[in-house]
């Protein structure tokens, strides 16, 4: 997959903000990478309090990006290049500017057809009273409607009503059952929205906060009820759009029965991914204790947290696809802090050969860096410990004005361009055979198939594993050399700093290698 943050990819009309026409103009570059799917962050109409994750109309492309016709054209032209298009679906909340919310805000009380949002006239004594950003909380009604509404993230993102499993009694009438009219309206709306875009040729959706639908103090009950909603949607998709793909933000909870989503997603902000790559130069994630990352020049990290999470995710189904991203819009980039372009290659080789579904964040193919001290644009600072704007800066196409992103005046840009005169660009790397861009292209071209086994033969430095019994991958992201016993003769396919001698492979600092084994050198043993 290739993730595009649309505000920052390519501006075709000179207003300082990226748009769909800009993406259409750059499809040849995307196709040259060898990717199969473009994943867009939200493109729907929005007041952009949270960068489009506050939707005011699910059935309309935001005017700043273009029109529905532009999206259809993009889907068609990408398809002609063998690339499908996946959109981001914000399923659990809307913007306060959505007509559904405005209608309920102006009402005297509950809708006769069932409320789409969760309202209470007096704050409940317990439950759902937390006010930390990122968790539900009650917000005082800003309009005629009496009382409070429940939010999902920012105050401007009211939570949609999918009902409750736990219903204490008549003293809390705001707790609708999951099969009450309001929740049923919203479940049908999800189907209608998904069907609207699939009918226009979209391949599927990455679902934001997918498991936040049913609110419940009994967390497991709420999760089970939410998963059941997605199973019902999957049953409909299997008949109406059997080729459609659903991927959740995060991993799908295992609640027994068939899984509703097509893959799990190991998020950049969670421990499995962060334990490999987060060097804390972009801030501190509050979701887990900081640890030394494995892919770091100091060589003090461990792959164990990642390996344990990987095994747990695939325990029930060893073939379960898992998405691993180079980076994303929510935290940092691979190149952050003191990490250099030279250090990226071992990390990139891991992300494209492990056996995961790789997701390449726009700009990582040229080694764009996370920029510190960016302004707080469209809710970028959702936690005081880190700023998401640093990974959302404009794509760097060439050495022209604004790095080729836009013809607008610099002060009108969505975010500032990297001011470093040595900043990487597509144009500078295009014809350089040793560039990061051409390394990524070659890596995607020669990488082993995603499906198959991954057998770890050394989980420390250097990390070494065998893919499908045929490919040996050796990675040394630390500055000091490292050695490992060779599983057998191997021929380099794409390698640097690899020395094979006397049954031992020595890997130079920041060295990497994808090698083809002679015969079946993997031998017995379980594979991931």
From TrEMBL:
This is Alpha-amylase. Residues 3-392 form the Glycosyl hydrolase family 13 catalytic domain. One of its GO terms (molecular function) is alpha-amylase activity. GO terms for biological process: oligosaccharide catabolic process. Belongs to the glycosyl hydrolase 13 family. InterPro entries: GH, GH13_cat_dom, O16G_dom_2. It comes from the Bacteria. It holds the Pfam family Alpha-amylase. SUPFAM superfamilies: (Trans)glycosidases. It comes from Paractinoplanes toevensis. Gene3D superfamilies: Glycosidases (3.20.20.80), Oligo-1,6-glucosidase, Domain 2 (3.90.400.10).
């Amino acid at each position: 997959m290739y993730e595009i943050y649309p505000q920052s990819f390519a501006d075709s009309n000179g207003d300082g903000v990226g748009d769909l026409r800009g993406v259409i103009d750059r499809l040849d570059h995307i196709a040259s990478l060898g990717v199969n799917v473009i994943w867009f962050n939200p493109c729907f109409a929005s007041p952009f309090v949270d960068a489009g994750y506050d939707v005011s109309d699910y059935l309309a492309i935001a005017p700043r990006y273009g029109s529905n016709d532009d999206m259809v054209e993009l889907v068609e032209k990408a398809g002609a290049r063998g690339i499908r298009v996946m959109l981001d679906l914000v399923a659990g909340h809307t913007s306060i500017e959505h007509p559904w919310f405005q209608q309920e805000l102006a009402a005297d009380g509950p809708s006769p057809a069932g409320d789409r949002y969760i309202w209470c006239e007096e704050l409940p004594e317990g439950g759902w009273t937390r006010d930390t950003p990122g968790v539900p909380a009650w917000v005082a009604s800003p309009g005629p409607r009496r009382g409070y509404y429940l939010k999902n993230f920012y105050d401007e993102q009211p939570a949609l009503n999918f009902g409750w499993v736990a219903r204490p009694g008549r003293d809390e009438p705001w707790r609708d059952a999951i099969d009450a009219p309001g929740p049923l309206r919203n479940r049908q709306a999800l189907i209608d929205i998904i069907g609207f875009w699939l009918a226009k040729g979209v391949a599927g959706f990455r679902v934001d906060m997918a498991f936040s639908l049913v609110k419940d103090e009994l967390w497991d009950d709420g999760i089970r009820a939410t998963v059941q909603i997605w199973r019902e949607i999957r049953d409909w998709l299997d008949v109406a759009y059997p080729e459609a793909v659903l991927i959740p933000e995060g991993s799908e909870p295992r609640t027994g029965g068939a899984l509703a989503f097509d893959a799990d997603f190991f998020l950049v902000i969670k421990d499995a991914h962060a334990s490999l790559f987060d060097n804390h130069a972009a801030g501190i994630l509050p979701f887990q204790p900081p640890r030394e990352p494995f892919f770091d020049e100091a060589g003090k990290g461990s792959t164990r947290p990642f390996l344990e999470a990987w095994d747990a995710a695939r325990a029930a189904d060893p073939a379960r696809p898992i998405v691993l991203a180079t980076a994303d819009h929510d935290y940092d980039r691979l190149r952050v802090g003191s990490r250099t372009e030279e250090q990226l290659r071992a990390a990139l080789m891991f992300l494209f050969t492990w056996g995961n579904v790789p997701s390449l964040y726009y700009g990582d193919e040229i080694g764009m860096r996370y920029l510190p001290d960016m302004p707080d644009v469209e809710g970028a600072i959702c936690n005081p410990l880190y700023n998401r704007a640093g990974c959302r800066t404009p794509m760097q196409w060439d050495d022209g004005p604004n790095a080729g992103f836009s013809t607008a005046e610099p002060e009108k840009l969505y975010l500032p361009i990297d001011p470093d005169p040595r900043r990487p660009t597509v144009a500078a790397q295009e014809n350089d055979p040793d560039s990061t861009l051409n390394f990524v292209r070659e890596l995607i071209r020669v990488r082993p198939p995603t499906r198959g086994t991954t057998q770890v033969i050394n989980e420390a430095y250097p990390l070494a594993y065998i893919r499908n019994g045929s490919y040996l991958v050796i990675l040394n992201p630390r500055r000091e050399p490292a050695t490992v016993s060779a599983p057998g003769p191997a021929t380099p396919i794409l390698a640097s700093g690899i020395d094979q001698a006397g049954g031992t492979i020595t890997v130079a600092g920041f060295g990497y290698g994808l090698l083809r084994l002679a015969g079946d050198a993997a031998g017995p043993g379980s594979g991931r």
